[in-house]
Each structure stands twice: as structure tokens, then as C-alpha cells.
Amino acid sequence: MLLINNLKVSFKEKNVLQNLNLNISKGEIFGILGKNGAGKTTLFQSIYQNINYSGEILIDNIKASKSKIGFVETENYFYPYMLGSEYLSFFKDTKSLKTDFVEKFDIPLKKYIDSYSTGMKKKIALTGTILLDKPFLILDEPFNGLDFESVEILYSVIKDLKNNNKTILISSHILETLTNTCDRIGILKNGMIDSIYTKNDFSNMITNRDTFIL
Q1: Mean pLDDT score, 64-91
Q2: Which of 60, 120, 136, 165 could staple 116 via S-S, CB 3.0–4.6 A?
Q3: The pLDDT of residue 31
Q4: Whole-prediction pTM value?
Q5: Residue pair 167/136 in contact by the 8 Å Cβ criterion
Q6: How far apart are CA 54 and CA 72, in angstroms?
Q7: Residue 37 to residues 42, 134, 173, Cα–Cα distance (Å)
Q8: Per-residue pLDDT tens digits for 21-55
Q9: What is the spatial distance between Cα 214 and Cα 209, in angstroms, rounded to a whole number?
């Protein structure tokens, strides 16, 4: 379970997050929707303990730590002249996951990552993070750069992770990718979670999407 109480983050006297509160149950997939610059990445960096903040962030009633979190950032760094297989060797080897996800994403492990497309780089970053087998996953814009087929595969992967009782926090600028994967969706606006919608509300969100993030 993730519990956030009165989270505040400021940069150069600008309040990015202010009095943000959020509660995510174990095994839940929670989506974050908001405009560019709303603070989605700042929220994720706070949970991952990468930046200074005030307030409280707890995972299973203990202060959040990287030891419990797998984080796929929007942009991922790869060392030059590294093979796909070499990159994955840095991560804990969970053979069943490695076989499943490498095959699903059709990752060319014997090629240099520098030669990968944007979408393929996203897929190998996702695979590496999944191999860490952390109980809590943060996926920041994971659908960016993926073609239609890969998006469908990622839907399946996220469903498998949920079935394995992983808790997932995910953002996307495409509403449908959240409604297709999430149990609930929170609107990040004015530095806080402005409102939260359940699956019963998703069809209304799609119909009236412009009203949710203005």
C-alpha cells in the first residue's frame, strides 16, 4: 500500500506539489492524468526518494525507499556500445519473467541498444525494471514511443503484473491507455490530486475528457 500525506515540493520558490494526498491499495493499478508541467514526474521522483520534499510517503507503513520500488522513467539512459543482453544482465535474473517479457517484446538482445528504436529502448527498460521484481512499480509515460502492437503487449504485461499482486502507479498523456489498464485514475491539478475516478466513471471521462484536466 502507498500512502502519501501532505506532500509538498518547491523549486525556486515555485510550488509544484502542495498538500498532495493519495492512498493506493496493494495490487492496485492507479493512473495519474494531468497537463504537461502538472507535476507528474515530480510526484514520481518524490516517491522514489530522488528529490527533497516535505510530508510523508509510506509503502506498507514504512517510509518509501528505492529497495521496494521499480521506476521506469520517461527517458532512460543506456551506456554506449552495450548489447541488450548485457543491459539485462545488470538486473536480478528471474528466469520465468526474463523469458516471458523478452519474448513478448521481441527484444534483439544481440544488438547494441544504441541501434534500437525509441520504442524498443522503452521495452528493454521496462523489462529490466520488471526483472527487479519489486512490489511497487512506477511507470512514467510507458506507452511513449510504442507502436500499436507493443501497446497491446504492454496492456497484457501490466495485467500479468497485477495478477502477481504488484502495485503500479502509471502516467500517460493518452487517456485511453489509462482507462484500459487502471483501477482508478487521479487528476493532478494545481499541485494536488484534484479528483479520483473509478472504472464506473471511465466512459464519462472519455466523453468529457477536456473537462478533467483544465
Answers
A1: 89
A2: 120
A3: 96
A4: 0.90
A5: yes
A6: 23
A7: 9, 28, 12
A8: 999 999 999 999 988 888 999 999 999 999 999 99
A9: 9
